[in-house]
Write a structure and sequence with these properties.
This protein is mainly α and 94 residues long. Helices cover 63% and strands 0% of the residues. The chain has 5 helices and no strands. It is elongated, with a radius of gyration of 16 Å.
C-alpha cells in the first residue's frame, strides 16, 4: 500500500520522495554504488533517478521493454516535454 502512495506522490513531487528515501531508507544503496549519482539525479532528473532505482531494486537489474518505455517517459517528464509554454496575450495587445 505504501508503494502505491509513494508512486503517486513521486509523480507529482519526485524530489520529496527522493529526500525521504535517501535519508530514511537504504533504497538507493541497492541501485547506486556511490552517493554522487543519487545527488545528481535529485538535482537534474529526479523522475529518471527514481525509476532507475525502482527498476534496479524490484527487477534485480533486469531491463525489459516496459522498463525502457517507462524510462523514456521519465526522461521526457524530467525534460519538461509536454508542458505548454504558450502564454495568452492580453486583449487588445498586438
Amino acid at each position: 500500500m505504501w508503494a502505491i502512495i509513494a508512486f503517486i506522490i513521486g509523480i507529482f513531487a519526485p524530489r520529496l520522495v527522493s529526500i525521504y528515501l535517501y535519508f530514511f531508507t537504504s533504497w538507493f544503496s541497492g541501485a547506486f554504488h556511490t552517493k554522487g549519482w543519487p545527488i545528481l539525479g535529485f538535482l537534474f532528473m529526479p523522475r529518471t533517478m527514481l525509476w532507475y532505482s525502482v527498476a534496479a531494486n524490484w527487477n534485480h537489474g533486469q531491463w525489459g521493454v516496459w522498463q525502457y518505455i517507462i524510462l523514456a517517459v521519465a526522461i521526457l517528464g524530467d525534460l519538461g516535454v509536454g508542458k505548454s509554454t504558450y502564454k495568452r496575450k492580453p486583449y487588445g495587445y498586438l
